Amino acid sequence: MDDLFEKVKKGKSKLACFEAYIDGASSGNPGPSGIGVLINKDKKTVSNLSQFIGMATNNVAEYTALIFALEQLIRLGAKQIIINTDSQLLANQIKKKYKVKNSNLKILHSKALRLLELFENVEIKNVLREKNREADRLAVNAIREQAKMATRQHNLAGGKSGLQREA
Q1: At 22, is the secondary structure helix, strand, or coil?
Q2: Main-chain dihedrals φ then ψ at residue 6, nearest 5 degrees
Q3: Is residue 153 part of a domain?
Q4: Average pLDDT of span 41-50
């Protein structure tokens, strides 16, 4: 990441304009969590990500989705970006309208701000959930796929957990 950071700082990245839709989801708070990121250029999808991130709060998942999106936008050479999120908290914390009080979020917030500095023009939009459905679907699917995989592994192991004893 630091090599990418230095490369962009030195201006070795081509100019492009992109729009990202991001979402984090948590089944429980905290609970199994996933992120969804959809990136468009000229209204065409160029990248999407659905990834399980482990146990986290919904707010941590939202920030993780933002960071993944920003890292992908850097790889794509974007300099002008629009970030769409249905998280009012995240949008207002990034815009510095709300303070970040949670220590875990402070770390993620700081990383996101550092990444945002690499872009020439940034717009953060707080959008309605209806406008962010695809990113939400990707985030929720990450959690579902992980649950399916865990169930398959459990079944392959004979349906026994470490807590069960044989008589």
Answers
A1: strand
A2: -65, -40
A3: no
A4: 93
Residue 63 lies in a domain: yes
Classified as helix, coil or strand, 152 is: helix
CATH (domain of 129): 3.30.420.10
* H helix count then E strand count, the chain: 5, 5
Residue 136 CB contacts under 8 Å (≥ 6 apart), including other chains: 23, 25, 36, 86, 129
Q: For residue 22, is it within any domain?
A: yes
Reported pTM: 0.83
Per this entry, what is the length of the chain?
167
pLDDT tens digits, one per residue of 66-80: 999 999 999 999 999
Structural domains of the chain, count: 1
Assess if residue 166 is contained within a domain.
no
- Residue the block writes with tokens 């992908």: 72
The per-residue pLDDT for range 126-161, each reduced to its tens digit, is: 999 999 999 999 999 999 999 888 777 767 877 655
